[in-house]
């Protein structure tokens, strides 16, 4: 299907909601491939620039992709006989900080949008973009249109924010790894936040954070559902991310299994075991703008400790070099070793709060498959383990089965 | 050449001017074919909409084309080591009326641009677009970037406004018709205005009007000149459109020959010759939004007059129908006849003001070629004739020769 046909389908879907009596604000993303096309043009002209002035122009450039789809959607809605008007981020305005290419929304003025809704119009708000204090265009980073949508829903106090994505909801785990994976009808906001940060790519994590802060009811559903399915069916499709924990929630202890291959493990061996080790190792790492995820420190022997942590795989070479050249000599550590062939697998479930023995069951399931656990990290509603990368699929399948995720909870 | 390569060439040219000590504001147009691509998308979604709400969205859409090239040019300049910043029309702001798709510039705030120039930056102002009183994006119509450039030059009180086009200046006539046509080094503003309105497509007529109103020195030059030619050579290339009539001007009586095939002739025959005929015929035509160009009324015989005028060829069928059905019966005229196979040929020259016999020489030249003149219209600095379309090339060549335009004036 051509790209305008896609926009026409969206317009038909919006019209269905409007004709059922809903007042709609729509936040379209750019047409498929458009953002990449624009950024490639910039890349051709200036492959290596990293200045604020460059990022400012990159945002001016990238913001046009969404403006095109907003205007086209307004036109498509008008062609269906609806009144519609589109606004760029600066017209609303959606105010952000000045962090070009990854700006954060600070406020949204809903006056203009509300007046248009009152006048019977379908309002299109251009996603992914905003306006900083200096009057410059900013963009919100990959998946930023989701965040725009949630932020607009929060500002408008919308009943629900429907996020149409390329999947039909949030699954117990990735169906490409576990064919028995099951779509979740509801998921708590905290679980969604963990799933998003642990590697589930359904929503930009910032959009989930925003939903949490402003208590926006989010529904993740599929943009590939035919526009003309029954509206009640559509209204109950996908996955609802909710704040009402205790009643409508499925009563599973573990709701989902998240995983990723993005990290690498680094161990500093034989560090003299005295106060301040963590700071002396991780201080320089943080100074180099490397984010550290899991951290483990074990006493080894003879007053020496081993210290391990994970970083994003892209940061692996830089971090290794930093440790070898600066940290190890200074600390008097024995060695530093790195392993990029790891994965992280996590079980997530709000039921873990009130159920003992969940982690034990996880370790047992992995043990029965002969999978060695390299690192463990826990929080209130998730347990993560680091494994050899080759065990990823096996581990996820074993855990999915052990926690009975293929079946609807009772 | 790819489109980013073209932008890089523009950046190199701008950098040359900047390094020679000039403070530059640059107004880029959209990348080749981009505006048409965007408008075609709108057309696919809504082929027939003609509402203000539709035109508003069309402007939101079309304005993105120039925003892309502005941001890319800023990036290209930064890659050359220059400081540069781009502004959309609304950021300057360039204020316009609300006539979507053909808005007129009302004011330009130069504060931000001036501060950036003072800070040593090359300022990119996005052409073709503005902001109306209601905070909506507007566009200025085809060729609108020229008008933006002239308006910015006026606001900034620039020394000169360089318009880089796909031709290397203004010619005595179209070189495709007369191979001996000669580039004019200078041309008065009034002559340029006549040339533009008579069919020379070098500049949007509104940009010339704007230059006249604010006395902006315009130079029309070629964007295909290699960027690295000597800067003094470039500074004197093309055609300078000036207000200094009496000294630097070339002393030709006729400066150029303009022509077009856009018009058609309509004659209402046998109209009772009494006061108010013109109004009764042209009133309904104007009410139908048809613009009339040349008008002639002759007494014929027995108290009946013939009344002829020209309209744009696109308006021909509509106008004929209107006259046949409404005007002719009401007036008691004999008939109405139309002719779409005409052309208009004009001689333009500020020297005509002070030289008698110019029109006579024109008529003589046409007569010697056996070309019949159908209508004549004169103004202070131009004489236009309407001819059978088949004589167009012959007439233009004969006039070019008769007025000695192939040779530089003494």
TrEMBL record, chains A, B:
**Which pathway does it take part in?**
Amino-acid biosynthesis; L-threonine biosynthesis; L-threonine from L-aspartate: step 1/5; Amino-acid biosynthesis; L-lysine biosynthesis via DAP pathway; (S)-tetrahydrodipicolinate from L-aspartate: step 1/4; Amino-acid biosynthesis; L-methionine biosynthesis via de novo pathway; L-homoserine from L-aspartate: step 1/3
What reaction is this protein's catalytic activity? Answer: L-aspartate + ATP = 4-phospho-L-aspartate + ADP
- The protein's name is Aspartokinase
Q: Which PANTHER family match?
A: ASPARTATE KINASE, ASPARTOKINASE
Q: Give the UniProt keywords, A-Z.
A: Amino-acid biosynthesis, ATP-binding, Kinase, Lysine biosynthesis, Nucleotide-binding, Transferase
Q: What is its EC number?
A: 2.7.2.4
The family note in this entry says: Belongs to the aspartokinase family.
Q: Which GO terms describe its cellular component?
A: cytosol
For this UniProt entry, which residues form the secretion signal?
Answer: none
Q: Which Pfam families match?
A: AA_kinase, ACT, ACT_9
What is the source species? Candidatus Symbiobacter mobilis CR
Q: Provide the residue positions that the database annotates as binding substrate.
A: 35, 66
One GO BP on record is: homoserine biosynthetic process
- Does the keyword ATP-binding feature in the UniProt annotation? yes
Detail which positions bind ATP: 165-166, 171, 176, 201-202
Decide whether keyword ATP-binding is in the record.
yes
Q: Which residues form the ACT domain?
A: 266-345, 347-410
MF terms from GO for this chain are: aspartate kinase activity; ATP binding
């Amino acid at each position: 299907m051509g790209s305008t046909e896609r926009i026409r389908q969206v317009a038909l879907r919006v019209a269905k909601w409007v004709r059922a009596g809903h007042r709609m604000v729509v936040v379209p993303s750019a047409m498929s491939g458009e953002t990449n096309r624009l950024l490639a043009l910039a890349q051709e002209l200036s492959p290596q620039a990293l200045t604020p002035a460059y990022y400012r122009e990159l945002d001016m450039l990238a913001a046009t992709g969404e403006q095109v789809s907003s205007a086209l959607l307004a036109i498509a809605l008008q062609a269906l006989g609806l009144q519609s008007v589109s606004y760029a981020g600066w017209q609303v305005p959606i105010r952000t900080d000045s962090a070009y290419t990854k700006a954060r929304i600070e406020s949204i003025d809903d006056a203009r949008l509300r007046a248009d809704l009152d006048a019977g119009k379908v309002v299109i708000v251009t996603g992914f973009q905003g306006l900083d204090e200096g009057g410059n265009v900013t963009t919100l980073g990959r998946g930023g249109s989701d965040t725009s949508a949630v932020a607009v829903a929060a500002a408008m106090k919308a009943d629900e924010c429907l996020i149409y994505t390329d999947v039909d909801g949030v699954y117990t785990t990735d169906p490409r790894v576990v064919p028995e994976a099951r779509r979740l009808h509801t998921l708590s906001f905290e679980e969604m936040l963990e799933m998003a940060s642990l590697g589930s790519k359904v929503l930009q994590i910032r959009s989930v954070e925003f939903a949490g802060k402003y208590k926006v009811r989010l529904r993740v559903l599929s943009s590939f559902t035919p526009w003309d399915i029954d509206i009640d069916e559509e209204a109950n499709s996908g996955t609802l991310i909710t704040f009402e924990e205790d009643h409508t929630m499925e009563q599973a202890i573990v709701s989902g299994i998240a995983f990723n291959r993005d990290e690498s493990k680094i161990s500093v061996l034989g560090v003299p075991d005295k106060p301040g080790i963590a700071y002396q190792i991780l201080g320089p790492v943080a100074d180099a703008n490397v984010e550290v995820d899991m951290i483990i420190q074990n006493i080894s022997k003879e007053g020496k400790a081993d210290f391990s942590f994970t970083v994003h795989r892209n940061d692996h070479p830089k971090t290794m070099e930093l440790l070898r050249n600066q940290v190890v000599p200074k600390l008097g550590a024995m060695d530093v070793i790195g392993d990029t062939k790891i994965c992280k697998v996590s079980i997530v479930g709000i039921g873990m709060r009130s159920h003992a023995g969940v982690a034990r069951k996880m370790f047992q399931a992995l043990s029965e498959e002969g999978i060695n656990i390299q690192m463990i990290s826990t929080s209130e509603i998730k347990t993560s383990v680091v494994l050899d990368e080759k065990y990823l699929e096996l581990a996820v399948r074993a855990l999915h089965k052990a926690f009975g995720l293929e079946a609807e909870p009772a």
